[in-house]
Amino acid sequence: MTETTRLTDRKRDAIVQAAIVEFRANGFEATSVDKVAARAEVSKRTLYNHFPSKDELFAAILHVLWESSASELQRAYEPARPVRDQLLELLQGKLAMLGDDNFLALARVAIAAGLHSPERAQEMVARIGEKDGGMLDWMRAAQKHGALKAGDAAQAVKQLESLVKGVAFWPQVAMGQPRLTAAAQKKLAAATVDLFLAYYAA
After folding, report:
1. Per the database entry, where does the chain bind DNA (predicted)?
2. In whole angstroms, how far apart are CA 50 and each of 45, 88, 131?
């Protein structure tokens, strides 16, 4: 890696970190490219070289936050291990991501921005969804192996995630409830897995 490349990467990282601060503090509409560039100590032109629009920048920081936890969700199905143990690990990774302060704060910003521009919201959700294939891949593999009932794997993932988000995401985003403690996350994951398997276990 050349020094020029390292400098470019550092500038991009500075822009992303500055954008996280600005979007959290001011929301989508009130955050300007000028403010982000000033906080990152780069020129506006440099910012636009990395991110052609404010929408692109916001989508990028959501991806950064997603990827910081997404590794926990990228688990291959293991036929030799109990399906319950694997599901518990997947959900605990999901809960860790949903409980991240930056992720919750920016989710609120994204939702508020989406209310004013449904098209923008759809695009953001689509981009984030590109990173959310780990659980779906796991579900399909478990079905193929016969550990779970055959059927619509995408629907099964939606049902599983709804059980989690109804307790550990939407109340925090929409009503300002506190994040779940580690113990509460563990309890929720176990209860959710047991409820899910009561129907889907083969």
Report:
1. 32-51
2. 9, 38, 20
